[in-house]
């Protein structure tokens, strides 16, 4: 898998997204479209950004009965996205169905990764709200392993978990890691962060970077710095 920097385009409208991307003259960064933008603008925003030459990680985190997820994945695959995801807690059967739906008639398909436990879920909430008694680290690794057994390509995880995920699931199992900050940058609401350089060292395959690029005075320079530190 090629190492790359994915920009989280957490914008509320097409206009704001295009204003941002227009700054990248001659460059076509890999971008992440999340629920906010997708629900605001619909599938056309994906088609338009694809047409402009961007690779797209469509971050919709599907979680439903296997049949519904399978059919929905077929729709996303037709949109020609490059990467998409689901919740591993939907079970192995759901992940297998997703993979089936995502696979195009010619055998190609977008990269499919799983969310293990959301980083916003505290160990207390997992125990008390979800009635999961196992330690968080075990749950994350178990869900990653389930994703691997279901045939998925990898997981979204904290950069701090990437090494352990590769240890358990193999080095070809893709780790996509948000929570990236420059050494001299603002952490915002992220708690467990790593620099792009550290993420490279511990073996992340893709880093997802939002505000350090989108809120930078010079977003193109910030993106280029990420690429320099993580890829080059
Ligand atoms: O702005 P920032 O760099 O914090 O953006 C990180 C992106 O990664 C956001 O789109 C956020 O929703 C996403 N994300 C995350 N932590 C996860 C999963 C996704 O920060 N565990």
SSE map:
Blueprint: E1 4-8, H1 14-21, E2 30-34, H2 35-41, H3 44-51, E3 56-62, H4 66-78, E4 83-87, H5 92-102, E5 111-115, H6 123-128, H7 136-149, E6 154-156, H8 159-169, E7 174-177, H9 196-201, E8 206-209, H10 211-214, H11 219-230
Parallel strand pairs: 1-2, 1-8, 2-3, 3-4, 4-5, 5-6, 6-7, 7-8
Helix pairs in contact: 4-5, 7-8
The structure holds cytidine-5'-monophosphate.
Describe the structure.
The protein is α/β, with parallel strands linked by helices and 232 residues long. It has a single domain, classed as TIM Barrel, CATH 3.20.20.70. The protein contains 11 helices and 8 strands. The chain has an 8-stranded parallel β-barrel, surrounded by 6 helices. Strand 3 (56-62), helix 4 and strand 4 (83-87) form a beta-alpha-beta unit. Helix 4 runs parallel beside helix 5. It is globular, with a radius of gyration of 17 Å. The mean pLDDT is 95. Bound molecules: cytidine-5'-monophosphate. Cytidine-5'-monophosphate (C5P) binds next to strand 8 and helix 10.
CATH superfamily: Aldolase class I
* CATH class categorisation: Alpha Beta
Low-confidence stretches: none
Question: Strand order of the main beta sheet, please?
Answer: 1-2-3-4-5-6-7-8
What CATH calls the topology is TIM Barrel
- The proportion of strand residues reads 15-25%
Query: How many distinct domains?
Result: 1
Q: Could you give the count of β-strands?
A: 8
Series of H and E elements: EHEHHEHEHEHHEHEHEHH
Bound molecules: cytidine-5'-monophosphate
Radius of gyration: 17 Å
Distance between the termini: 15 Å
What class, by secondary structure content? Answer: alpha/beta
Q: What kind of sheet is the major sheet?
A: 8 strands, parallel, barrel
CATH architectural label: Alpha-Beta Barrel
Overall outline: globular
| Mean pLDDT across residues | 95
- Work out the helix count: 11
Range of helix content: 40-55%
């Amino acid at each position: 898998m090629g190492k790359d920097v994915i920009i989280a385009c957490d914008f509320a409208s097409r206009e704001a997204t295009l204003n941002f991307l227009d700054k990248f003259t001659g460059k076509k960064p890999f971008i992440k479209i999340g629920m906010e933008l997708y629900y605001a603008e619909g599938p056309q925003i994906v088609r338009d950004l694809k047409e402009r030459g961007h690779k797209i990680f469509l971050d919709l985190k599907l979680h439903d009965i296997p049949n519904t997820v399978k059919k929905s994945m077929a729709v996303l695959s037709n949109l020609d996205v490059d990467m998409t995801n689901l919740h591993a807690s939907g079970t192995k059967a759901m992940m297998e169905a997703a993979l089936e739906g995502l696979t195009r008639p010619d055998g190609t398909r977008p990269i499919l990764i799983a969310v293990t436990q959301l980083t916003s879920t505290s160990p207390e909430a997992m125990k008390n709200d979800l009635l999961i008694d196992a330690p968080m680290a075990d749950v994350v690794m178990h869900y990653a392993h389930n994703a691997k057994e279901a045939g998925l390509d990898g997981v979204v995880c904290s950069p701090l978990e990437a090494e352990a995920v590769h240890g358990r699931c193999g080095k070809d199992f893709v780790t996509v890691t948000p929570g990236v900050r420059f050494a001299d940058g603002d952490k915002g609401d992220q708690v467990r962060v790593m620099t792009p350089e550290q993420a490279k060292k511990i073996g992340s395959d893709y880093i997802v970077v939002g505000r350090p690029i989108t809120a930078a005075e010079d977003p193109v320079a910030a993106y280029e710095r990420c690429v320099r530190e993580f890829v080059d």
